[in-house]
Amino acid sequence: MFRENTDHLQTEFFNTVEGLPAKEKKRLADSWAQSFYTELFSRIDEAPFAKLYSGIYSRPNTPVNILAGIEILKAGFGWSDEELYEAFLFNLQVRYALGLRTLGEGNFELRTLYNFRARVSFHMQNSGENLYDSMFSKVTDEQLEAMKLNTGTQRMDSTLVGSNIRRYSRLQLLVEVLQRVWRMLEEEGEEQKYQDDFSPYIKGTSGQYCYRLKGDLGSHFSAIGELMHKLVEELKARYKEHKSYQVLKRVFTEHFELKYDSGDGDGPKIEVKEGKSLSASSMQSPDDLEATFRSKKGEQSRGYVVNLTETCDKENEVQLITKVQVAPNVTDDQSLMV
Predict the structure, then answer these.
(1) Do residue 24 and residue 82 come from a single domain?
(2) Rounded to an integer, what distance in angstroms lies between the CA atom of residue 23 and that of residue 25?
(3) Are 311 and 152 in contact (CB under 8 A)?
(4) 3-state secondary structure string, 269-305?
(5) CB of 246 closer than 8 Å to CB of 255
(6) How many domains does one find in the chain?
(7) 181 and 161 in one domain?
(8) Which tens digit of pLDDT belongs to each residue from 119-168?
């Protein structure tokens, strides 16, 4: 059950912070923790996150503003989850920044954070709504107004970020996709029908398959193309909504083409596309369907481009990042500017 966290607005008189000597208490109030609490944490609107929780009367949720604030601190300090959790439990500055004034107050298990991440991610995948992006925009708008910052002039810049995916060779990627289609068939009890077709590709991992090969690889690409075409046609009626089938169809389209000869009735011939003709937006991994390939300043990247926009008016006392965009790394800056 969702409940907004307003406890930080009125803290208990006897708490850890109040027990500090005056000098240390002032040092804490003058630190980054106070700025974080005032300028960010106190501006987090928890209401949009209510849709992640059941409406049935039950145990209240762990405060959303604390969970979101922790994620921001994790990114800012570059912590691992272990370091993040220890800082939350024992670092008074971190707790102060999150509206907590007493050690031991408001503690929760780390799996609570994992569950929250999963809910936010699931919601975005199903609705397209990025709750963190909306939260960032609202907080930034309030900061711009409170600080009276000029936004008429802004600047933007991009950097490439690699996706946390295995780097496949072209052949290994095709075999990996076939193996996942095989597992799909196993789940449905239809593997016997295609046992002979798949037998060369399921004797080990996709990497082990490639490791055993020698000589010209052209015949292996051709054989895989023929099998993929057969599977795309025969599995469509039953599995067209299944992710593994959709990946199979996409990869076949990206790596092979059908050549029709009007002079015979044997059907289309499957031709392997040349490597240089593959699109940079072709699939890099079956575990990340949006990651793309890009070479920039001599460095190759498989993943995304992150674009930041910030104010840059000379009259502003401080400058703020006003927009963060993430897109496949083949997206150019002009598109992100629009």
Answers:
(1) yes
(2) 5
(3) no
(4) EEEECCHHHCCCCCCCECCECCCEEEEECCEEEEEEE
(5) no
(6) 3
(7) no
(8) 999 999 899 999 999 999 999 999 999 999 999 999 999 999 999 888 89
pTM: 0.76
Q: How far apart are CA 185 and CA 183, in angstroms?
A: 5
Are the C-beta atoms of 149 and 311 separated by less than 8 Å? yes
> For residues 100 and 94, is the Cβ–Cβ distance under 8 A?
no
> In angstroms, rounded to a whole number, what is the distance separating the alpha carbons of residues 3 and 55?
10
With cut-offs at 50, 70 and 90, classify the pLDDT of residue 61.
very high
Whole-angstrom distance, CA of residue 227 vs CA of residue 234: 11
Tell me the C-alpha distance between 207 and 196, whole Å: 20
Contact criterion met (CB below 8 Å) for 98 and 37? yes
In a domain, 313, yes or no: yes
Query: Does residue 137 belong to any structural domain of this protein?
Result: no
CA dist 316 and 94 (Å) reads: 28
Helix axes 22-29 and 32-39, enclosed angle (nearest 10): 50
Q: Which domain holds residue 205?
A: 170-277
Residue 283 lies in a domain: no
Helix intervals (H) in the chain: 22-29, 32-39, 64-77, 81-90, 92-97, 110-127, 131-147, 170-188, 195-198, 206-211, 218-239, 243-255, 333-337
| Per-residue model confidence (pLDDT) at position 263 | 62
Residues 192 and 157 occupy one common structural domain: no
pLDDT digits over 171-222, tens only? 999 999 999 999 999 998 889 999 999 999 999 999 999 988 887 788 999 9
